[in-house]
Amino acid sequence: MDVRLINPFIAATEKVFDVMLGMKLKVGKPSVGRQPPELHGCVSAAIHMVGGATGTILLLFPRDIVLSVARMLDDSTASFDDGLDAIGELANMIAGSGKRTIGDRLIEISIPQVIVGQCSLPFLRTPNQWLSIPFKSPLVSFKLAASFSANSQRLNAKEQDFQLLADRTVAAAKSQ
User: Fold this and answer.
1) CA–CA dist 130, 33 (Å, integer)
2) Looking at residue 95, what is its pLDDT?
3) DSSP structural state of residue 76
4) pTM (two decimals)
5) Which residues contact 140 (CB under 8 A, 6 or more apart)?
6) I need a surface site. Which of 14, 23, 31, 35 has the fewest CB within 10 A?
7) Coil, helix or strand for 133?
C-alpha cells in the first residue's frame, strides 16, 4: 500500500474531527488482513477512488455513536437519520481534504456512500489487502480501512505532467 495515498486520509480524519467536533484523535496500531472489515452492526462511509490508485476507503463507526456525532455537530434533537447525514458530511470533508493533499488531478474520488449494517458489497471483495487503522478519543472510537492498488506508472506520469506544466509556467513568467 502506497503511503502517499493513505497518509493524506489519516491526516484528514484527524483534522476534520479536530476542527468540526473539537476532538483530538489518537491513531492506533494499524493492522493488515486479506478480509474486508466487518460491517455487521455498524455505519460505514465508503469513498471510492480511481486514477493514480483504484480502491476504497471506509470509515467504520459503531452504530451507537452515530447519534452522538450528529448531536455534537448540530443539536440535542438530532435523529438517527441526522446522524447518518453527519457521518456522510464528515466523510465528504475527509475525502476532499485527502484528495487535495494527494493532488486533485492525480485521483478521482466518489461522493461518500453511507452504509448501515452488514452489507455484501462487491467493492469489498478485492485481491488486495485491507489496512485497518483505529482512531480513539474519550467520546468515540472508529476505524479507517483502506484497500487499493496504486497505479504507480499512471501516478508517476501524472506527477511528471504536473511538473512539466509547472516548469513551463515558470519559464513563461520569466520570459515576460
Assistant:
1) 5
2) 93
3) T
4) 0.78
5) 23, 61, 65, 68, 69
6) 35
7) strand
Number of domains observed in the structure of the chain: 1
Lowest mean pLDDT segment, chosen from 49-63, 126-140, 159-173: 159-173
Q: Which three cell numbers stand for residue 62?
A: 459503531
Q: Does residue 14 carry a pLDDT above 60? A: yes
The pair phi, psi for residue 45, each rounded to 5°, is -120, 120
**Domain assignment of residue 72, given as a range:** 3-175
Distance CA 8, CA 5 (A): 6
For position 169, what pLDDT does the model report?
47
Query: What distance in Å separates the CA atoms of residue 29 and residue 166, rounded to the nearest whole number?
Result: 38
Q: CA-CA-CA-CA torsion for 34, 36, 40, 41, nearest 10 degrees?
A: 120
CATH number, domain with residue 110: 3.40.1550.10
Q: How far apart are CA 34 and CA 52, in angstroms?
A: 22
